[in-house]
Structure formats: C-alpha cells, structure tokens
Amino acid sequence: METPLITGAFALLLFTIALLQPLARRLGLAPSVLLAMVGTLIGILATYLLYTPRTNAFNEIAYLFVHPPFNSEMILYIFLPLLLFQTSLTLDVRRLFEDIWPVLVMAVVAVFVATAFIGFALYPLSGMTLVACLLLGAIVATTDPVAVVAIFRDIGAPPRLGRIVEGESLLNDAAAIVLFVILLGLITGEHTMTGGEALIALARSFVGGILVGAFLSRIAVLLLPVMRDLPLAQVTLSLALPYGIYVLSDQFVDVSGVVAVVSAGVVFNLYGPARIQPANWHFLHSVWEQLSYWAASLIFLLSAILIPRFVEGFAPLDILLLFVVIVAALAARAVVVFGLLPVLKTLGAAQTVNTKFKTVILWGGMRGAVTLTLALSVSEHAMLSDEVSGFITKLATGFVLFTLLVYGTSLKPLIRLLGLDRLNARDEALRTQYLSLALADVRQEIETVATAYHIDPHVSYEVVKDYRDRVATAASETNRLEELKDKDRVLIGLIALADREQQLVLEHFHSKTISGRAVSRFLTLTGRIGDLTRAEGRSGYNRATRQPLKFGPGFRLAQSLQRRLGIARPLAIRLADRFEFLLVYRILADELIEYNRHRIRPLLGDRVAGILDDTLCNRQDETVQAIEALRLQYPDYADTLESQFLRKAGVRLEETAYDEARDQMLIGTELHQNLLRDVERSRRASHKRPKLDLGLKTLDLIRSHPLFADLPAKQQKAIGKKMRPQFAIPHEKLIRRGDRGDAAYFIASGAVEVRTPSHNVRLGRGDVFGEIALMTGGRRNADVVALGYCQLLCLSAQDFKTLMEVHPELREHVIKLAAERQLMNADPGQEIEDPVVPQFRTEKGGEETAGKPAPNEAPEPGDVADTQSTAVENGATSSPDPAGGEAGPDGDAIENAEGQAKKETASG
Fold first, then answer.
1. Which of 313, 378, 550, 833 is the most buried (most CB within 10 A)?
2. Containing H/E element for 120?
3. In 3D, which of 141, 593, 704 has the Cα closest to residue 399?
4. Side by side, which strands form the sheet with 743-749?
5. Residues 364, 407: contact at Cβ < 8 Å?
C-alpha cells in the first residue's frame, strides 16, 4: 500500500503546483512565496490530522507528509544538480562576465561576511559554541533567486539587475555549501583543522570543482555532434551530465559537487550552441525549463511542508535570536552592497551599480529551498546534539519564512516605488512614435484584407475606424519625441541598432550562414555593444564596435608562439578566425545601414538617421580596411571564404525550397527526406573551413626576396639556417627608438614605415631595415612600424655580421644602401661622416677589419636612423595604401643597387 500512497501523494503535489501558478499570478505574488505558504499550511494540516483524536481516517496520508520517505541527502542529490545546471543554461554567461566582479563579491565575499556577522552576533546571546553559530550563518547565507527573478520578469525590471541576482545565487550556493561542509565537520569532530588548513581545503574544493566540471562538460559538448539528428539523445546526455558530475565530485574526487555542476553548466552554455543545431538547442532549453520548474516547485513545497516540524518548541528567546539573525544578515548585506560594490567601481573593476539597483539587491536577499534542505540535514545528523540541531533548524526556518513573507511580498512594491518598472522618458517617447507608425500600417493592412476577402464595407468600417482613432491618439503624443534632444534620439537609434544586430546574428546562425564557433563571439559582441551604448551613448557604441578590429591578447600570444618557438598553427587559426569574423562583420554593417535607412529613418527623422548612417558608414569603412589589409596578404584565402559564405547561403535557400515544396504537397515526405540528405552533405562541405597557410617557410621567403633570389640554392639554404621568419600585424612597432640593435629585418612581403624625428620613410618588399645599428654599434634612432601584414626574415646581429663576411657581394650592396640611407635620413644641411664603411672595409692586404674602426676614424655614436630604403630619391617617398599591403618593385637589388636606389619607395 505504501507505493500507491507515495504515488498518490506525488500526484497531489504536482496538482497543487499546477494550480498555484495561475493563482500566484492572480494574487500578484511570486510562485515560490505562495508555494512556501501553501506548503506550510499542508504541513500544519498533516500534523493536525495525524495527532488529532477526532479521526484516524487520514493517518496514513498525514504520516507521509509529516515524516516523508526522503532525507536531506536525497533532496540534494535529486533536485540540486537540476536546479544548478538549468540556471547555468539560462544565464547569459557572456553578459554576466561583464559584471563578474559585482557577482563574485555578492556570491562569495557576501557569504563569508554574512556567516561572520550572524555567527558573532549570535555567539554572546545564544549560549552555543562559535562554530555552531557560524554554521547557522553559513546555512542562511545562501540566497534563492527564484522569487526575486520571477518578480523582476513580471514587472519588467532591467535585465542587468536580474543577471546580478541570478549570478549571485548560482555561485553563493556553492560557497555556502562548501563552507557548511567544513563547519559541520568541525562541529562534529569529523575534521580537525586549523584556520589555514580550512582555507586550503576551501580553495581546493572550489578550484577542483571548477576543473572537474569544465573538463567533463567539454567532453559532453564534443559528443553532441555524434547525436546531430537525435535531439532526444542530446537532451538525455545533458541530463546525465550534472548528476554524473555531482556524484563523481562529491563521492570520489572529494571536490565541491555544487561548484563542479555550476562549472559544467557554464561550459555547456558557452560551447553547446556551436555543436548543436539551433532547433535542437531550443528543444533542449525547453525540456530543461520544464525539469527545473518541477524541481524548484517540488523542493520548495517539500521543504515548506517540514516547516511546522522545524519550528516546534519555538520559545521567546528564539524570537530574540531570530531578530538578531535578521538584523545581522541585513547589516552584512548592506555592508557588501553599499560598501564593497562602490570600491569595485573606484578600482575600475566593474560598471556602476546605481543606488536603486543596490536597494533592490539589498532587499531581495530572500532565502529558500537550499537553506531549508541544509537545515533538514542538520536535524538528521546523528552526531549533533538535539540542542544544537534544534537551535539551527528553528532559526534557519524562521529566517526563511521571514524573508519570503516580508521581503517576498514587499519587493514588488519597492521596485515600483523606485520606478524601476517604468519606461524612461526616451523609451516612452519612442513608444508613442512607434505605436503611431505601427498602428497606421495595421490599419492599411486591414483595409487590404477586407477588400481581398470581399468583406462588406460597413463591417470593416468599424474596425478600421477603431485603428484610425488609435493612430490619431498616438500621433497626438508623438511630439514627446520631438521634445527630446538630438543626443537622446541618437541614443534611441543606436540602442535599436544594437538590438537589431543581435537579432541579425541569430538569424544568420539559424540560416547557418554563420558557423557555430563564430556565433558565440558575435553574441558576446552585440551584448557588449548594447551595454556600452546604454551606458555611454555614441562614444560607447563606437568603442564597442571598434574593439573587435583590434588584436587581442589571444592573437598576441599566438604571434609570440610563432616568433619565439616557431609554432605557427595557433597564429594561422587566429588569422583564419579574423578573416571569417571580418567578412560577417562587414555583412552585418551592410544590413544595419539598410535597416537604418528603411526602418529607423521614418521613426526618428532624417537628421538622426543621417548621424546614425555616418556612424555605421565609418564602422563599415574601418571593417573594409581591415579586410583589405588581410586580402592583400592572402587574396586566395579571402576569395575562398567569400565563396564558402555564398555556398552556405545557397544550401539554406535549397533547404527552404524543399521545405516549401513539402508544405505545399508538391513532394512527399520520403522524397523530402532524400533531398535533405543531399543538402546535409553539401552543408557539411560548406562548413569545413580551409586551412590558412601563413607562407612563413624560410626557404621560400629567401627565394622570393630580391637580395637572395639570384644566389645559388646551396647558399640560399645556408642563409636559411640563420634566418627566422616573423609575422607582423598592422601598426605593430617592430623597432623602438633608443634600443640597442640586435637584429636586421628583410621584408619578404608587406610594407613598413620608418619614423624619424624629422620625417617618415616607407619600405616595401625587398628592403632591409635595422641593419645600420648593427654596423655602427649605436642605438636605433627611429621607430619602425608595420603598415600592414608583413612577412619578415629576421637575422640576429652575429648572424648578420657572419653573412656579410661570407657574401662580399651582399656586403657591398648593403654598404651602399646604408650610405644612401644615412643621406636620406639626415636633416637638411647636416654633415654626416660615414660610420658604415669602416665597419666592413677590406684593407689593401685583403685582411678583413670588420667590426674595427679604421685608423684615425671613429664610428659615429649611432645617431643615424636605423633604417634603410632601396627606393628613395632625395628623401621623398610615396604614400602607402592605408591598409598596408605588399609593397613595391621586384627588381634585382643586388645587381643594380644604383638603379634601385633611384626608385621611389614602394607603398603599402
């Protein structure tokens, strides 16, 4: 009879949960608050029915609720992994990283502060040990975002506020549970450790959990493509992941299972969309939302049912202690919110969190199911005395009830009082303008529909009249938009562009014209554009849109690996990623320009649309310049990527055509599936990105360089052993003025600019720079900056000297070029002695005196610009292409040094 009874009780709970959802909406309460109330009432009713002498008819079902057939460990293992993983999936993790420091402060620091405040406040009054008081503090330190976030969504609170609160709860569960385990071990004597050992154990549990969760989740993500067309299998894998990680971490690896599950959810959220079809990812999210709803509701209801048992024997002293807990918890939260968050802003580690946000965060610190479950585990612990367990469970339960009944019911009025649920003046003005335009379009469509379907005019007149009146009312209020300053209207337009760009990214991803590995970066970028635009206006928009055109730390690291260790693959991958990103970035800019001209212009007017058009065109020009710089270096690869993009679009159009034919019953299901298999093969081929060859093979670069092209193959190989290929990016400073000369550089492709104090010189393919300091022994007297992508051959000082000694024809040529460079770099009227020739002069007897000044001849102190151009005439240079492409003449500089010196400098 027990199994049917449990099944029936479970069905009753689900029925209650289903009915409470619409009731909570009607009453204007958060569902979790109502669940706690109803659960408490069920617990009271079950206790009454079990112990009342009036009847015994309900004893079996009442006993089931008063003494449920589960314990705290079962609740944690069944429900906690689900809740943690699903919260990680729904969080916009990339946007959360922008507020990571406030979240970490609220999630980790606040837990320790609350534990300390509550523990030390209770210790003098409670008669309990300090560890027992701190254990209670750890239990009630974790917040529950379910009620708070539900209220935020219900009234339309700012998304950033919800992200901070959800991120806090996600991470503070981990911090509080880890701290709870350590303190529980200390109070029961299971662990004996010093304060330092406890901190080490805490850090090990945290870091170990992060590593275990991230590693196993990454493996699961790699398995997703194996189940490409099996969404049910993908969901099943995602469901097994948090349970497996929690058990493995908690029972076998001895790290925090909570932290591991959170880490796994974050990794799955970051990399999962790139490995799964958009429709399958949406299906997975829907299933997890349902599972989370069940888990959160059941854990709340089951925990609340136990509340009457927990608060049994509540004494007057307990009321005083509960008041102390409430005040201490609020004070601890206030210290963190109003004391530490402003410090983060001062240190530049976070955006400003305004006072209204901080007030809501302070009042939104509700406790819930996790606190009740931890209290249940204390009540069940055999090694704790009844006095300690009663002290902890009564106060923890009372505090949860207080936060739900007081904070939960007053949070919505507080948000409304602060005005966080209302549109600001800009959005209200935009609303009226947009409403006027939209209703006018709807009215015209209704008239068209009525005509097309032959609806009698007297029937359609009333409907059209209703819309006409609404249009007139909205139009009468559109002067609000005109009253706004141009700055505000431009901000409205920029925010609309940022939101539209995010939508365009998702549309391209769903159309499969953007790869999975690229969509994550684009979504992060569009989120940042929106945030910076809202915070800083036009300057923030420009800063956010220009940031991806720069070379980040990852690119610099890949470039360093190529230069120092000769590992070129990471650099090639980064360049290929940049190629793909820039091509899509240009397409997005084109689409935004059209969107501005056709959709924003009617809404905000010609003047504002013109400003937005200038902003978008500048962005487009900068993107095109970045693309052309790469195209000049790798034209074939650029053509291949553009061709691949068109093939992706073609595959999508082909798939759409087949779907429409099936929907119109032109083809059957079997034929449709057959055609889709061909489409899938074409799609896989179009998404296979070609490898980018950097062209940094030393021997090939030497053979293509005019200085070495005519040398015998044997000598080219010998020179190649001394040369080191180097890849330079636009605007990279290759040589700094004032440094000691340690190498000479031979330009195989690309262009550089030598920046002397008086003028600039541009050098291209076949030129050499950096050699004069090696010959004079002085310091460099100019900066050398790459104008575009460059392939260089780097030769160390000692190898350069050896090369000059072994190859007299190269030595003579370099001497002539260096002398010409000195004349070219010199200021007008400046007299320069020749410091170069003595360094490499051959004495009459044939003995080399390289490196030694001739008698009575001292070298210059090195104030000559460390540069050289084979194509300079009277110091004049041609203007380079801004993108910095491949430079100049390909003449034989060795055979015709004099002629080469008369050519104009090749431009980029």
1. 378
2. helix 110-126
3. 141
4. 724-728, 790-796, 743-749, 768-769
5. yes
Helix (H, G, I), strand (E, B) or coil at 383: coil
Query: DSSP letter string over 159-227?
Result: HHHHHHHHHHHHHHHHHHHHHHHHHHHHHHTS----HHHHHHHHHHHHHHHHHHHHHHHHHHHHHGGGG
Buried-state track 154-179, b at ≥16 Cβ within 10 A, e below 16:
beebbebbbbbbbbbbbbbbbbbbbb
CA gap 112, 328 in Å, rounded: 13
Q: pLDDT tens digits for 417-452?
A: 887 767 666 666 667 767 777 888 888 888 888 888
User: Which among 752, 751, 753 has a CA at the least distance from the CA of 633?
Assistant: 751
Which of 491, 415, 496 lies closest to 165, judged by CA? 415
Using one digit for the tens of pLDDT, what is the confidence trace for 360-389? 878 877 777 788 888 888 888 888 888 888
Q: How many residues does the chain have?
A: 908
More confident residue, 146 or 456: 456
Three-state SS for 504? helix
Q: What is the pLDDT of residues 697-747, one digit of tens each?
A: 888 888 877 777 777 788 788 888 888 888 888 888 888 888 887 888 888
Q: Tally the C-alpha atoms within 13 A of residue 74's C-alpha that lie toward its C-beta.
A: 8
On whether the CB atoms of residues 661 and 676 are closer than 8 A, the answer is no
pLDDT digit string (tens) for 18-40?
A: 998 888 888 877 787 788 888 88
Query: 823 falls in which pLDDT band (50, 70, 90)?
Result: low
DSSP letter assigned to residue 843: P
Q: Classify 762 as helix, strand or coil.
A: strand
For the domain made up of 72-418, the CATH class stated in words is mainly alpha
Closest CA to 102 of 57, 58, 150, 160: 160
Q: Is 78 left (phi over 0), alpha (psi -120 to 50) or beta?
A: alpha
> Is the model's pLDDT at 844 over the cut of 90?
no
Contact between residue 779 and residue 739 where contact means Cβ atoms under 8 Å apart: yes
DSSP 3-state assignment of 454?
A: coil
> Shortest CA distance to 219 belongs to which of 233, 236, 238, 235?
238
Structure tokens at 695: 């062209």
d(CA 46, CA 35): 16
Q: Name which of 135-149, 281-295, 342-356 the model is least confident about.
A: 342-356
Q: Identify residue 548 by its one-letter amino acid code.
A: P
Residue type, 479: N
Take residue 197 and report the two structure tokens written for it: 């050992």
510: pLDDT strictly greater than 70: yes
Say how far apart CA 464 and CA 448 lie, in whole Å.
11
The mean predicted confidence, pLDDT, of the chain is: 78
DSSP one-letter code for 382: T
Q: Which CATH class is domain 698-902?
A: mainly beta
Q: What is the pLDDT of residues 29-68, one digit of tens each?
A: 778 778 888 888 888 898 888 888 888 888 888 888 888 8
Enter the pTM of the model. 0.64
Residue 5's pLDDT is 82
Rounded CA separation 848/844 (Å) = 9
- CB atoms under 10 Å from CB of 538, counted, come to 16
Q: In this structure, how many other beta carbons lie within 10 angstroms of the beta carbon of residue 202?
A: 17
Question: Which burial class, exposed, middle or buried, applies to 891 when counting CB atoms under 10 A from its CB (0-12, 13-18, 19+)?
Answer: middle
User: Which tokens is 2 given?
Assistant: 């027990």
The answer on pLDDT for 490 being more than 90 is: no
Q: CA angle, 295 as apex, 290 and 300 as ends, to 5°?
A: 130
Work out the burial of residue 489: count CB atoms within 10 Å of its CB; fewer than 13 is exposed, 13-18 middle, 19 or more buried. Answer: buried
Residue 162 contacts residue 152 (beta carbons within 8 Å) = yes
C-alpha–C-alpha distance, residues 748 and 698, integer Å: 10
Residue-range domain boundaries for the chain:
2-66, 72-418, 429-484, 487-633, 634-692, 698-902
| Pairing mode, strands 790-796 and 768-769 | unpaired
The amino acid present at 535, given as its one-letter code, is: A
